[in-house]
């Protein structure tokens, strides 16, 4: 059963048909969930139909505003995606009516075509994600456009999530839409190696969004749980879309990649689920950072750990693994331990060795340093961290300095630890991390005379 034509504010043609099958005031949570879930599907459908991303995106934003007002009063319709598509399409057509008489033929075709029935079962989210992560866009623009178009966040919400001014986000989104238009990007999935490459860009953007939510780069709070949850939600949608659009086992051998991105989608989802499961234990009263060795692990979400572990165990058996799968495997080993002391550090160090071979980035080496320090002693870990001192991204970063301070503390060299903690404190912009580093400095014992 399809919904009746929605009420479009100021549109007498739809006002007379206005009835909602739900018929009740929508709670805020239900309203937000319906809008978040429906926005990318509606946008994807419009872009697939009409191909003008910038105009379709504007039309969907207008539809979301109308939905926010009408659904709050009358309840969420049975087919919210169809409702959004109907309103956005009419907005689009109204604009074309006003701006360009040559659109008359498309308008006539549209008016003759039912606009509700097809949409609820059609999910073009994967195509939309790939379009938003077009290679002509910078990472910052990809993130902003993904949160706006796929996440369904308003420009103000995207700005709040990224801790940048709303005008900055508006400029990024506007520039991104212009670049997509100029590049002639098409709303279709590429094939073969190009598909794998584009999907990797999507995964990287989602990884960046989640990491910013997991540990905010600045601000008062250690975590941006709303941002992490949004990245997790989109990755779940991607995982579902990829699984339904392309089963790697069915792909021709020439189209399979040794570390198939489809397996990496599952790996990234598992990594997010396992990491997000510890969120409550990572902060104490007042939002203070609680390090892993002091966390109350009974506050970890066991059902989510079970989900992530099952997911990564299944995908590790599907073929050659990639970096996200290995990171998820490391997270799973951490999650099964009752304490830092009972953690299987030998297994984690082994996984890091494999990870460093296929993805020898500085952050991987930093994580490896901790695992090596736990198996071979702090000096072995310090040697790895010292080797990163000249890295242009991590050399002067507070995370490298914090790890170095921690390892010097484990080695009993408290003066060295103090110097590194102070250097890290000087470089972090997150208040919770600053407070943690001050606490470490306060509790460092004095250096023993030699």
From TrEMBL:
Residues 242-261 are annotated as: Disordered. GO terms for biological process: DNA-templated transcription initiation. Residues 252-261 have a biased composition (Low complexity). Residues 198-245, 260-314 form the DUF6596 domain. GO terms for molecular function: DNA binding; sigma factor activity. Residues 128-178 form the RNA polymerase sigma factor 70 region 4 type domain. Keywords: Sigma factor, Transcription, Transcription regulation. Belongs to the sigma-70 factor family. ECF subfamily. This is RNA polymerase sigma factor (Sigma-70 family).
């Amino acid at each position: 059963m399809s919904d009746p034509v929605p009420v479009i504010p100021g549109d007498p043609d739809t006002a007379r048909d206005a009835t909602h099958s739900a018929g009740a005031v929508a709670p805020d949570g239900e309203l937000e969930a319906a809008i978040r879930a429906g926005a990318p599907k509606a946008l994807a459908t419009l872009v697939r139909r009409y191909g003008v991303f910038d105009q379709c995106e504007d039309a969907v934003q207008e539809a979301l505003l109308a939905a926010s007002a009408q659904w709050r009063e009358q309840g969420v319709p049975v087919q919210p995606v169809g409702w959004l598509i109907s309103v956005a399409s009419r907005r689009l057509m109204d604009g074309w009516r006003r701006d360009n008489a040559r659109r008359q033929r498309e308008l006539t075709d549209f008016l003759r075509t039912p606009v509700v029935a097809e949409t609820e079962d059609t999910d073009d989210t994967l195509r939309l994600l790939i379009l938003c992560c077009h290679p002509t866009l910078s990472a910052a623009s990809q993130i902003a456009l993904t949160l706006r178009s796929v996440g369904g966040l308003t420009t103000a919400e995207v700005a709040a999530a990224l801790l940048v001014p709303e005008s900055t986000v508006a400029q990024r989104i506007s520039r991104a839409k212009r670049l997509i238009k100029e590049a002639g990007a098409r709303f279709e999935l590429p094939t073969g190696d190009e598909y794998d490459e584009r999907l990797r860009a999507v995964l990287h953007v989602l990884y960046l969004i989640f990491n910013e939510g997991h540990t905010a780069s600045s601000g008062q709070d250690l975590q941006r749980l709303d941002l992490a949850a949004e990245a997790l939600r989109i990755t779940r949608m991607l995982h579902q879309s990829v699984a339904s659009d392309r089963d790697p086992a069915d792909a021709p051998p020439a189209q399979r990649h040794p570390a198939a991105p489809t397996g990496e989608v599952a790996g990234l989802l598992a990594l997010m689920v396992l990491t997000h499961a510890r969120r409550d234990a990572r902060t104490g009263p007042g939002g203070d950072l609680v390090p892993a060795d002091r966390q109350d692990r009974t506050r970890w979400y066991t059902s989510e750990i079970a989900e992530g572990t099952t997911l990564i165990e299944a995908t590790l058996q599907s073929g050659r693994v990639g970096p996200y799968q290995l990171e998820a495997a490391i997270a799973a080993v951490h999650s099964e331990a009752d304490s830092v002391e009972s953690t299987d550090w030998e297994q984690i160090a082994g996984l890091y060795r494999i990870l460093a071979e296929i993805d020898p980035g500085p952050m991987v080496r930093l994580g490896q340093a901790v695992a090596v320090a736990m198996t071979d002693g702090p000096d072995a870990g310090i040697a790895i961290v010292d080797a990163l001192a000249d890295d242009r991204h991590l050399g002067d970063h507070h995370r490298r300095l914090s790890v170095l301070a921690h390892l010097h503390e484990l080695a009993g060299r408290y003066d060295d630890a103090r110097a590194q903690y102070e250097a890290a404190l000087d470089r972090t912009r997150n208040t919770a991390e600053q407070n943690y580093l001050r606490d470490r400095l306060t509790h460092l014992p004095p250096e023993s005379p030699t």
